[in-house]
Amino acid sequence: MIDAIRTRRRNLAEDLPPGGSGSSVPIDFQRLERLRRLSRLMDSRWRIPFTRIPIGLDGIASIVPVAGDTATAVVSAYIIMEAARFDLPKSLLARMAFNVALDWAAGSIPVVGTVFDIAFKANRANLNLLHEHLEQRLAAAAAKR
């Protein structure tokens, strides 16, 4: 599904005039791809053997309560800061920050937090929010044409 969205977004971006989508900040697809790769590394890079459960550095680091979750929350904050460069609304950035705060708070609980970190993919959710917003922005720009 992500590939279909990415392809559709590329096609729309190629049709846009130079300077981006008509908004004050053009969409930087290289930055978006970096965020996608980092999000995947943090949340779903590997699979737990003999299962289909994805795990990333966030789930692995949560084995060390508080310290591991704090370290991964810093990386998640970086993802939000980079996403903010796409000129996102403050309400969307607040929602992303809430996802990270929830991931940090619940993930800091010993044992239960590790299971929560494996189940709840905050970075993936944040990247999906970013994709949805950019998709709407591109669709609005295409509709103006």
Describe the model:
- The protein has 145 residues and is an all-alpha fold.
- Helices cover 70% and strands 3% of the residues.
- The chain has 7 helices and 2 strands.
- The protein has a two-stranded antiparallel ribbon.
- A hairpin with a 6-residue loop joins strand 1 and strand 2.
- The longest helix has 23 residues.
- It starts with a helix and ends with a helix.
- About 6% of the residues have low confidence.
Number of helices: 7
- The helix/strand series, from N terminus to C terminus, equals HHEEHHHHH
Q: How much helix is in the residues? A: 55-70%
What low-confidence regions span 5 or more consecutive residues with pLDDT below 50? 16-24
Strand order of the largest sheet: 1-2
Q: What is this entry, summarized?
A:
The chain has helices spanning 2-15, 29-43, 57-61, 67-84, 90-107, 112-119, 122-144, and strands spanning 46-47, 54-55.
